[in-house]
Amino acid sequence: MKLWGGRFTKEENQLVHNFNESLSFDQKFYRQDIQGSMAHVKMLAAAGIISEDDRDTILSGLEGILSDIEEGRLEFSLEHEDIHSFVEANLIERVGDAGKKLHTGRSRNDQVALDMKLYTRDEIKETDSLVKELLTELHIIMKENTDTYMPGFTHLQKAQPVTLAHHVGAYFEMFKRDRGRLHDIYERMNYCPLGSGALAGTTYPLDREMTSELLGFYGPTLNSMDSVSDRDYLIELLSALSTIMMHLSRFCEEIIIWNTNEYRFVEIDDAYSTGSSIMPQKKNPDIAELVRGKSGRVYGALMSMLTTMKGLPLAYNKDMQEDKEFTFDAIDTVKGCLALFTGMVKTMSFRKDVMESSAKNGFTNATDAADYLVNKGVPFRDAHGIVGKLVLFCIDKNISLDEMTLEEYKAISPVFENDIYDAISLKTCVEKRTTIGAPGKAAMEKVIALNEEYLKKPAF
């Protein structure tokens, strides 16, 4: 059944129908479409536009359709153009003329705008819960590893010693910001477009405030043209999802590096690894690599959405039908990646001895050796040069700063005394960094306590 067939004298060309239809993908929000129709018909009756008997008949029919879809008794038929016509045709078939009153005072333009908002709102909540699950696992790692020393890096070169808790804490902050972005989008988008009609509202005395309240929105949208043509919230969501994928990809890159034979910082659980078809010794970090690779897929959805919207005049245009497939795919991709990544991190083991040894052998305490000299009255620029000579000496001898004898220290600068060994120990290097945000244990415990409180807060 075509909702617009009265104006036309010819049947639609089959190729045109196939090109034009959206039921093959917008069936994904059948629940939201029926939910919106139920609210709409309740409002129509309350406003005196339809009778209470018609309301009850329509509601019963819609409930039956929803139940039959979810129980597998009603299958989607692509003879229908979209989810709206599918539901309405089935309703009329079941309840007769009363079903023809359902569409009073609305257009498919405001109907699809509503469906997409309802669907997106639900998916934001689901994505947020998955990010929170990941944060919970990172929080556990942080609590257990405030004394796990490892090298911190810049330019992928060992730089200064940190702890695993501190390193993982950086990702905790990233994903915490991701949740903040999801919440911001939810707050901005949570206004109801239903009642905007095709673009100019309707002459029926609709109670848009009632419809908004029934559907859990903060209120109705305030411009009918914007209401049916707004896809900003999808662009914002795809941007936020792209940022989540970027953070996952960065973390995956580090896990892939840490998993190499050269680093051996982590051991990925067998359940999240694969082997080689030809090399029996291989254990590949395929899940981490796939998550890293799928970031480009989500970025592509964002660019597609921006490109689709960039030249559209007001109000609704059929181009906007293109918002669905790549948004659905991006949401599913991110949710899948979050779930798999969280499982991988939860089952991953850390080689703490290897991490500490790597920090010791990478001159990560060189800055602290310079600070030691400064505290003895040596100007920093001179101290920098002296420690540079120490490093060259160690490289030549294939030893670490900790392994130099006091005589060797004094041969380069007589300022060094026996307390240099305590000054450059990993424990000292880390623990004396006590400002909030630093890797010292006292500072980290304050942050962990703040994170504990953050995780207890309700999501929405």
Molecular structure report:
The chain is mainly α and 460 residues long. It folds into three domains: 5-104, Fumarase C, Chain B, domain 1; 109-146 and 158-349, Up-down Bundle (Fumarase C, Chain A, domain 2); 358-456, Fumarase/aspartase (C-terminal domain) (Ribonucleotide Reductase Protein R1, domain 1), CATH 1.10.40.30. Helices cover 61% and strands 4% of the residues. The protein is built from 19 helices and four strands. The strands form two sheets. It has a two-stranded antiparallel sheet. A hairpin with a 2-residue loop joins β1 and β2 (157-163). It is elongated, with a radius of gyration of 30 Å. The two termini are 40 Å apart.
Low-confidence stretches: none
Order of neighbouring strands in the sheet with most strands: 1-2
Helix content: 55-70%
Tell me, briefly, the overall form: elongated
How many domain regions? 3
Percent of residues in beta strands? Answer: under 5%
CATH superfamily of the largest domain: Fumarase/aspartase (Central domain)
Number of strands: 4
Number of helices: 19
CATH architectural category of the largest domain? Up-down Bundle
